[in-house]
Structure formats: C-alpha cells, structure tokens
Amino acid sequence: MEEIKHNEDLTQFVSQLHDQDYQNDAVFERAITALDVAELGLLLEALPIAERCERWPQVPDEIKPLVLVEMRSQARDPILQALDEGGMELLLRSLDAECLIELSDNFTEELIERALSYLDERQKSWFESANQFETNQIGRYVDHKILTITVNAKVKDAIRVIKRSNQSSLDSIYVLGKNNDYRGAVKVKDVLRENSELRMIRGMIDSSTPSILATESLLDAVDELERSGAISLPVINSEGGFIGQISLPTALSIVKQHYDGQLMAKAGMAESDDLFVPILTGARSRAIWLGINLITAFLASWTIGLFEDVLSKVVALAVLMPVVASMGGIAGSQTLALIIRGLAVGQVTMGNAIAICRQELGISIINGVGWAIVIGVVAYYWFGSFGVGSVIAVAVFANIQVAAVSGVYLPLILARIGIDPALSGAVLLTTVTDVFGFITFLGLGALILV
Hints:
The protein is mainly α. The protein has helices at residues 10-17, 24-34, 37-45, 49-55, 64-70, 73-82, 85-94, 97-103, 109-117, 121-130, 155-165, 188-192, 218-228, 248-265, 279-305, 308-313, 315-344, 353-383, 386-416, 421-448, and strands at residues 148-150, 172-176, 182-187, 212-213, 232-236, 242-247.
C-alpha cells in the first residue's frame, strides 16, 4: 500500500501519473485533496487525452466547473466531448453565469440554451450582460461576488448586508441608484465603526473611488486597478449602469493569460493550445507558421544566391556570414522586446517613436562601433586579410543600426495595422536583418575583395 504524503506538489503528481510504479487512481485522489482548482486543471492538461478523460470522473462534481474554467480552451474540449448525456446534464446544471461565459466557446448554442434554462433570473441577467461584450473587454469577465446597497439605505442596512454576505475579503459596498446606476462606494471599515446606525449611506460615499468602463480592454482595466491601489473597482456600462467589479484575482489571471499568450505567439501558437493536442490538428496549426518561416528563409537564400560568384572566390565571406546575421538579429531582438513591452503597457506610441529611435540608435552606435572593431580584428587575424576584416566590420556596424530602427518601427507598424507584434515581429525582424546584412556584407565583398 502506498504511503500517503501531504506535501506533494503539481510536478510530483505529474511524474507519478506517468510512472507505472504508482496506481493512478490513488495518485489522482491525493492530487484532488492536495491541489487547488487551478493546479488540478494544470495537472489534467499534463495528461494525454485518453488518461485525462479517464481521470475526469474522479473530480468532485462541485468543483468540476471551476476546474474546467481554469483549463485552456483546447485542453478541456476532449473532456466535454467524452461526457455522456448524464454527465453533460450534471455539468450544465452546476454552472453559474461566470462559468458559462468562460466555457461558452466550447459549447454549442443548444448546450448554452440548456445551461441558461437552469439559471435563475439574476444569473441569466448576468450572463446576458456579459455576453454583450467582446472577449477582450472587461465587461465580459466582471466579478459578481460583491456587496451592493441602495443610495437611500442607512448604516444599519449596510451592516445587515455585510453580515449576511459572510465574505471577509470585501473592502467596499457599492452604492446604486433606483435604476441600478452607480453612485459610488462606501468602505466596509467605515460602516462598521460608524456610531449612528441611522446615518444615511449617501453621506458616507467615497467619491474618490474610480470606475472602469465595461468596454475597456482587459489590460487597460488591469492598469487602472493597479494605479488605484484598491483591491477591486466597479465596472459600469456607457450609461453609468453598474455591472460588477474587477478584483485582484481577476486582474492576476488576465495578466498571466496575456503573457502566456505572448510567449506562445512568438512560436506562432495560441495561448489556448493543448499540450496533447491531436497530432493532425497540431501539425495543421503549426504548418502555417513553418510556411511563413520557409518564405523568409528562401528570401534570405535568394539574397545569398545573388553573390554566388563572390562566395566561390572569397571563401572567408561564406564562413563569416552567420556572424553578420547573428549580430543584427540579437541587436534587433533586444530592441523589439523593449518596444513590445512598451506597447503592452501603453508607453510606446507613434508620438514618441522618433525619440525612442534616437535613443536606440545611440545605444546601437556605441555597441556597433565596439563590436565591429572586435569582429574586424578577429577576422583580420583569422584570415590574414585586412580587406576581409574591414568588410565584416562595416557590415556588422550597419546591420546593428538597421536592426535598431527595425526593432522600433516594425512592432509599431504591425500594431497600427492590427497584427500582434509578438506573433510576427521576430520573424519579420530576422528577415530584415538577414537580408540587409547579407546584401551589405556580400556587396562590400564584391566591391573590395573581388
């Protein structure tokens, strides 16, 4: 019999579930006890699809919706498709409005309608309100675990709401008008230490609490919450109607998904991609990215082919070509990363692009001169040719300058035309630096050395 441990973490459970020396049923039962819903979702994603579906019935019914929400969209699909009619019915009955919004992309219209039929009128209203907004707007993901009170209420009414809620993490009560319009917020601590229970709430409203428009982007909403210093902020529609709130846990989840998405986008993949995606599906989705890279590779090869005669006469140029491409690529990638980060947080626009470009060019000139001299000297001693050393020194310097300018303007242009710079910026930048570097290096070689 296996010894039960209470200090196991996610990585240990992943290892044990792939180890034949352990009984998977027992290991997964321990995991359910030891892990939270987010970690449990990650654990299921780490299992091959057949094993994932086999483990799913062990997940307690009361946390199944929460675990599904924590999983990536593509990773939860096999589980949902494997459910029989009874399992699907049980799941649909257990969903609230917030879970249904998160899972709606995995459901057919018929399943969504069935899930809605089990919600009460309040939950249906929340779902319909959230469904009006796009997937990148904060109004779609507001939190409804909140305290609200009418503007005509008294302190004693607020105290009653606080006691009934039994939620210790809330720091504010949102004050609403008769038409559900947002009037402001009252701090819970101020309510609890108020001497007169008959005092009107309207006189205690904190007008400094900002609100967030429901149509704002997810990252803009997170930025506003961070700047406010609050643990939550109200979200309102364009008419001033109260919708819900954005809280710190929601903000952290948004930021995590954003950076996960950027990381995957650099490889031409989506944040929702499954670790064990079906082979044909995975191959098809990655084929496009490989095709784009192939086109850029052919472009660079075609550029080299233009100087075939030069390369046949001066072998040193062929040996040193990767140095020129590599230095330009690295320099450009450094600038590109800086600009993409600036775009994400709103620090970089076309308005300050010239100033940033001057800054990057200043840095690249210093680095370009320094490394061009080093590389030129190495090439001179390596091949015993002052001409070869001079050609590569000039080419490296020029390519680093082009890389700096491209690193600034390429992501700005891509963002302007609606393409994610994190997705295609690196590929385009590499193409620019490779093509320019080869043309400069081999062109100078043809003029000076042949």
